Amino acid sequence: METQPLKNNISSYIIQSQEDEIKRIALELHEGVGQTLYSLFTGLKFIETTVEQEALKGYVSDMGELLEKTIQEIRLLAVELHPPTLTTLGLLPAVKSYLKLYTSTYGIEVDIDITGEEVCLNQSERITLFRVCQEALANIARYADIVRAVMSFSWKENDLTIMIKDNGKGFDIEKGWEKSTGLAAMRERMLFIGGDCQLSSKVGEGTVVRLSLPLNDTTDKK
């Protein structure tokens, strides 16, 4: 039967198409909208120097600060959608960069522990692992009600294991998998790259997400 392989190919194509679109939007936000707003900001700052009325000068200054904040938010959103370091430097640098953004946004500190030597992953694996980690961290921000979490990377000769833990509210696993499209998507994404996503949680005790990926024949991946 070729039904399952065909379904996997279609789903993989959809995911890749989504990633291409996300990358395009991130680039447009940063290079298009972001640059346009920055040009407006510099123009507004020039106008501020020519205004003599104190009330109007204060108003222009406030508008400048608001525009500057908007520019920063757009740049941060672009990085969150598609961090440049994911392509240029690899998974770990991209995750570390994202955790800084995550902490500044949600106020949740994430302690990261790394064992073993990082292995070069292909683009599909890097993107998938990054997206699944993003989703796991987003769930912590939405539901866990904590200020600190733990993330670990264990690189071994034949496999990579990523653990994301929190000591938050926890939830009922059976109901969680059934009701959350995000959790189901995490598992499905891992399956497409030959990996696995396991979840354990107890109400009142927290949640652990465990991602595993075989690393056979990955040393020459780009």
Automatic annotation (TrEMBL):
Coiled-coil residue windows: none
An example molecular function term from Gene Ontology annotations: protein histidine kinase activity
The Histidine kinase domain, residue ranges: 32-217
Catalytic activity entry: ATP + protein L-histidine = ADP + protein N-phospho-L-histidine
Enzyme class: transferase
InterPro entries linked to this entry: HATPase_C_sf (IPR036890), HATPase_dom (IPR003594), His_kinase_dom (IPR005467), Sensor_HK_TwoCompSys (IPR050482), Sig_transdc_His_kin_sub3_dim/P (IPR011712)
PROSITE patterns named among the record's database cross-references: HIS_KIN
CDD domains, per database record: HATPase_UhpB-NarQ-NarX-like
Enzyme Commission code: 2.7.13.3
UniProt keyword list: ATP-binding, Kinase, Nucleotide-binding, Phosphoprotein, Transferase, Two-component regulatory system
Signal peptide range: none
PANTHER family assigned: NITRATE/NITRITE SENSOR PROTEIN NARX-RELATED (PTHR24421), NITRATE_NITRITE SENSOR PROTEIN NARQ (PTHR24421:SF10)
Protein name: histidine kinase
